[in-house]
Write a structure and sequence with these properties.
Length: 361
Amino acid sequence: MSKVWNFYAGPAKLPQEALKRAQAEMLDWEGTGMSVAEISHRSKPYDALHHEAMSLVSDLLGLDEDHHVLFLQGGASLQFAMVPMSFIPAGGSADYIMTGSWSEKALKEARIVASAREAGTSEADGFTRIPRQDELDLDPAAAYVHLTSNNTIRGTQWRDFPETGDVPLVADMSSDFLWRPFDANRFSLIYAGAQKNVGPAGVTVVIVRKSWLEKANSNLPTLLKYSTHVNKDSLYNTPPCFAIYLVRNVLAWIQASGGLTAMEERANGKAGRLYGVIESHPDFYRCPVAPDSRSVMNVVFRLPSEELEAKFVAEAAAGGMVGLKGHRSVGGCRASIYNAMEPEGVEALAGFMEEFARKNG
Ligand SMILES: *Cc1c(COP(=O)(O)O)cnc(C)c1O
């Protein structure tokens, strides 16, 4: 098997350690003589794994007693609907900060079930930056403020989260969950589809402030109520056991690697390397994102022409570097360098970029 560096935006690269552990345990998990994918979710070994995964999220982030970790299904896309259904009261409204497609989808879902307003946007600048605090028009009576912490498609990322006063803060962290230490207890709800930074597709990690649930709409189908999942520790119905198992492996790897501080240092180093190559070839590569808004997870860049971009993606793939095509809605190139991407992979890409610029510039 030849070495492949996987730069796909999601589902995305997983840490080798997490996959090797799964491989070693595939046929006989913890002496049960069965795979973790074959065992009852009510069994003792599964229960222990499930709670270990929850505790790892909690420990890595230093969550307080009021914050509960959930493992749900339906992707981040179902959270776009569950959040407004639960938390916008009749006659109320929520504020959404717009930073591209995912925030647009979140707002669209909210407007199906309730009233929601745009409280800030960088659309006039083509979503190439994160709105500044002084540009936000926050409603003090809003049910919550929603933001997307990392914009997977546009390659922008929030560094400092906005002040929202007494209004609860909600974030879609699908593409940068657990990349660095941050004050998660400030948030009333965080959700993240696992398949970008913490695991495979099939499970969504949600962190919810329990005391906020007292205000939630209770007139909802059972599975769409956060309280159902909080009360049953995400075991009300069959959870995505195997996906949760792999998330546990990834979380254990993060912890063994030095936790979120180590992830942050590694991420800044990797992103710095790629942005450095882009900036040192200003006549060839161009990053459309404002420097203070650049994502350390998704590095988005353009070449002088679409032909050269296609050639770049094809030649990179031939050299074992896959998934570098930008999202179809914006074009260009994108290197997704989540936690699992080794610095060696970024080094290989940086070397290829320099060489490609030299040959084609
Ligand atoms: C990928 C992504 C989503 C969509 O996630 P699904 O799990 O496919 O629903 C939502 N938000 C962000 C920021 C994403 O990167």
